[in-house]
Amino acid sequence: MTSRHSSIAAFVLALVVTTTGVLPALAATPDPFMGSPFNQNQLLAYRWGAGAVPPTVIKTAINAAADDANASRKSKAPTFAYDGGGSNAISYGVDVPCGVNGLACFRRDAPSWFAVYLRENGHRFDWGTLRWCEATDRPNGCYDAENITLDELGHVLGLDHHVNLADDSDYGDAVVQTYSRTKPGAFYNAHVFGRCDIATLQQVYDVPTTSTLYSTCLDVPTQLSMTATRISVVAGSVVTFTATLGSAGTGRLSNNAVSGRTVVLQQRAGSGWTDVLTMIPGSTAGTYSVGLVMRTTSDLRALFRKPSSEGLRSSSSAPITVTVSAACTTGPCPQFAPVPGQ
Amino acid sequence: MESLRWRRLVPLVVVIAAGALGPGRAVSGAGAGPAWDPPPCTEADTGGPPGAGAWYRLDPVLDRAGTLAAQRLTAGIAGRPSRHLDLAPESFASGPVGGLVLAGEDDGSVSRLRLLDPAHGCATAVADEPAVIRSAVLDPDGRSIVEHRVDRATRADLGIWRRAIGGSAVRLLDGLEPDPELGPTFATDLVVAADGRLVVSSCAMDACRVRVLDPATGAVDRFRGTGQGLGVTGGSVVVRAACPGLPCPVEAIDLATGRRTTLAEQAGAAVLGGPAGTDLVYEAAGDRVAVLGVATGRRVAAQEAGGVPLRAGSTATAGADAPPGRVALAPRGRPGPTTIRAFDPVGGSSAELMEASR
After folding, report:
1. Which residues in chain A are contacts of B315 at CB distance < 8 A?
2. Residues of A with CB below 8 A from B66's CB?
3. Which tens digit of pLDDT belongs to each residue from A75-109?
4. pLDDT value of position B71
5. Alpha-carbon separation of residue B116 from A48, A261, B93, B314 (angstroms)
6. Residue B203 and residue B184: Cα distance in Å, rounded?
7. Class of domain A222-325
8. Do domains A3-205 and A222-325 have the same CATH topology?
9. Domain A3-205, CATH
């Protein structure tokens, strides 16, 4: 524990109250975040707790969960890897220091260390006997250790419990849940972070590349600008338009170049705009270019439409008016200066 | 005499214990000492001095497949060799109160309660109960036991009962129906305050329903969506926030208004103790121990004290009988014969429990 935690403790407390109170969320939202983050892409090597080594089937499940976290983080969140000399411990069955309830728990002191603890198969709770699916013949009512470990690793990364809709219809949006389901409940064996887990990881740790899709659990504004190589040309000239798309969210999700998306060049038509061409990704991250043979004076702009596959908002650039004059057939013909800054 | 009796018992009990466990492995409990099959306490035992410095810890014993095979109860007196006995997988221990450890185990058909006396090496059978006694605590006066039961077949909550030592049991609180928002109840913890008030925490996977019963008036205050209750003092019940892990805030809830106040924003292990049971003693950053007066706001700065507080309550997995006004500490909350310390919440000092108990 560090004093860093205290600065956000009140915020965390409010979130905790929210997650456990009676007020349901109105729409799927990113998981709350708690405590301090680890570093971006920090490698969190773990070993088995001394005297608390899991049986082989649970080791396999834990290692699989680490792989699941790494593969599905879609962010610069830390990664997990087993290393016998690792500074973090995952323990099974012994000296579980957390509350009396729960299948598993964690301790964390980011960015220094974490620990995860899993109850032993056969542990008695008020409701009955804990059965890990992996340690049994997967009877109904068993808990999937890989799923539960992934939930704990999400906590280690700083994720607090997802705030579900009142009818739990968004349960599949997060692995990090207030209470996990047993077989055969839907998502009892989810082995990837849900979109609202990923959303928070992206907010806190950033997206790993400019082409990474933003979680659909997010609603990140974008900003789009555009330049033209000429704004006054003779008919038949080619003008190259270059748009730059970036994220306009907060924190890590501000001013990120956004590549690999579809940006179109539009031309004003009456009171609206009409697509002219799809712009081609440029050599610089977040840029999109296209050359257009100009025939008439036109207002043009770039448009990024909100994709259904990710949580970015639409945006359009400010329009650029390109003035087109008749082609010069008798000299001397005027010279057209490039747009300042080009 | 006691030590002689111990030695005579040891060889046979070791053989029995080893056979009973089969391929199992005790995965922890270093320093558990020899096996113990405590004989019934006699008048001579009970007439002796109280077992100052008594302690216990409960550790799971797993078979080779990693499945719970038994619960190893290690008990002793600080500074003296400890002994252990293996209980059924469904078992618990609490206390010590007045040198006695309350142990319960369920064999699948009946729950049995015993009071173990580590100082005299004996045990007193207290009850055989057809329902499953999930956990229980001794009243501070040692005259009665408060227990939580579930139905053997359905695991439905059968409520909280008070059992007079050597007498019958009466129900104090009804069982709770499952809460659809919080999920099934995983554990029910009982804490009895020095003034007799009872804090019952019925905890789902992450959040609890807490009831505070004043047996003098029969009044019950109810709170929902908190973490586990640590105790009650004055007009406040002290609870954890509902957190998925540690560290976690500790809050005071005003019994009259329900208003919540954060006492400690980041606490690891925590317990309510001190001379009047009004001090929150908790693990702060860096394995240090800090103190906060719940009503007064008096603070003792966090300091290295040789351990973290041992949690009170019926579901605690370790405990130690510290001198009045002191709080028992142990490294990582896991006591051993020579590792327990008695912490003074007033002055902030600590000493080995065996010294503090003399």
Report:
1. 100
2. 54-55, 57-58, 92-93, 120-121, 135
3. 999 999 999 999 999 999 877 776 666 889 888 88
4. 95
5. 34, 71, 10, 15
6. 8
7. mainly beta
8. no
9. 3.40.390.10
